[in-house]
Amino acid sequence: MTQSLAEIDLDFVPLGRTGIQTSELQFGTWRFGRTTEEGTLEISEDRAHDLLDTYAEAGGRYIDTADVYGGGDSERWIGDWLADRDRERYTIASKLYWQIRDGDPNSRGTNRKNVRHRVDAVLDRLDTEYIDVLYIHRWDDETPTRELMKTLNGIVESGNVHYLGASTLRPNAWKVARANAIAEANGWEPFTVLQPRYNLVDREIEGDYLEFARQRNLAVCPWSPLGQGFLTGKYARDEDLPDESKAAESSRFRDSYLTDENFDVHDELEAVAEEVDASPAQVALAWHLHRDGISAPIVGARTVEQLTENLAAATIDLSPAQVDRLTAAKPGPYDTL
User: Fold this and answer.
1) Distance (Å, rounded) from C-alpha 24 to C-alpha 295?
2) Strands, E assignment, the chain
3) Phi, psi of 42 (to 5 degrees)
4) Measuring CA to CA, which residue among 139, 135, 146, 136 is closest to residue 179?
5) How far apart are CA 330 and CA 230, in angstroms?
6) What does pTM read for this prediction?
7) Which are the contacts of 215, defined by CB distance < 8 A and separation ≥ 6?
8) C-alpha angle 307/309/314, rounded to 5°?
């Protein structure tokens, strides 16, 4: 299925219990300003603005970034782009956690000193008075949860942040539950948006994590919905991979994704894609949009053409039987959904 940008009009969906509506597909900007190990700039400022223009033209309103993306350039470029637009029309999310100054351990984590300083820097780079959603990029077990939630609540009360989120690598519903219990017992702002890894072959969050989010009406906005590119069809079973490919360089990627079990999932994905006249990537994204409890997966792209293809996933209507087939191709750890 080849669709023009004019045929794409992203719907608005509720962002959990925040009360706001935002786009059914978010745009992730982690490649903005990123330089590869070989010294190649993945996305320049001009291309970043072209991509943001494309997303906005398709009706996109939810832009996801982080203070470490491109060494801060991602936020700067988004801020420059927003300067010519109505800021109120966009949901802007950023994240903080990773160390940003060599030799300074206090520039990492979610201690009060680091969080307050970095929120001010994020606002400055984005050239905005507030961030719609502020995520902790990872859990910091060295900072007491009570200190974290009190600090984040103060930032919300200041008006610099509207809602709080937790971006995670592993399912940790109990950590979110504990943090929210502390916040609510003290009348503080809780986490209302979650950002876990989730896709057709990464199913760890199914079961307790998703059930907890549904019960508490927390927004779940997955990252890596295409499994680091595995679900786009760029890899083939038993095929020798080029030396420059990420898969060839990363044994972790190979062990995590290039397995017979995952290629079985991809076979089913390709079968459904052929049935609905779409690409595997589009169907993999559309699967998220048909899943109960999923709010708005994050899509990224290097080119306007690639972004347009990904956004067209919102136009694909999968039947319940097709969704079930894709889901059953690799049952989750609890197989409860």
Assistant:
1) 7
2) 12-14, 21-23, 26-28, 62-64, 91-96, 131-136, 161-167, 191-195, 219-220, 298-299
3) -70, -50
4) 146
5) 15
6) 0.93
7) none
8) 100
Tokens found for residue 124: 């400055």
Which tokens hold the place of 125?
């780079």
Structure tokens that stand for 253 in this block: 């990627």
Grade residue 42 by pLDDT with cuts at 50, 70 and 90.
very high
Q: How far apart (Å, rounded) are the C-alpha atoms in residues 112 and 135?
A: 15
pLDDT band at 6 (very low <50, low <70, confident <90, very high): confident
Helix (H) or strand (E) holding 183, with range, is: helix 173-185
Angle at CA of residue 60, ends 90 and 31, nearest 5°: 90
Q: Which two tokens stand for residue 104?
A: 């300074």
- Distance, in Å, from the CA atom of 194 to the CA atom of 264, rounded to the nearest integer, reads 29
Q: Domain segments of the chain: what residues? A: 5-231+294-301
The whole-angstrom distance between residue 326's C-alpha and the CA centroid of its chain comes to 21
DSSP 101: S
Active-site entry in 55, 62, 69, 209: 69
**Whether 337 contacts 210, CB under 8 Å:** yes
The residues near 82 (Cβ < 8 Å, ≥ 6 apart) are 90, 92, 126, 127, 128
Q: Which residues contact 210 (CB under 8 A, 6 or more apart)?
A: 220, 293, 337
CA distances in angstroms from 115 to 95, 120, 136, listed in the order given: 10, 9, 9
Residue 231's Cα: distance from chain center in Å?
16
Which CATH architecture fits 5-231+294-301? Alpha-Beta Barrel (3.20)
Task: For tokens 């996933």, name the residue.
Answer: 313
% of the chain exceeding 90 in pLDDT:
80
How would residue 337 be classed by pLDDT, with cut points 50, 70 and 90? very low
What does the block give as tokens for 5?
């940008």
Confidence band for 229, pLDDT divided at 50, 70 and 90: very high
CA separation, residue 285 to residues 246, 268, 316 (Å): 21, 14, 9
How far is residue 315's CA from residue 322's CA, in Å, rounded to a whole number?
A: 15
Q: Is 69 a catalytic residue?
A: yes
DSSP, res 11: P
